Amino acid sequence: MRNVAAEFRWRERVEAYDRHLDRLYEATWLEERRRAAEADAKILGAAIGKLAQRLGTLRADDLSPGDFIRLMDVAMRHRRVLFGDPTETIAITGQGGNPLAAQIAEFARMPEDQRRAELADLAAAVNRRLRAVDGSDDDADGEDAEEDQDVEDQDVEE
Question: Is 80 exceeded by the pLDDT of residue 6?
Answer without folding.
Answer: yes
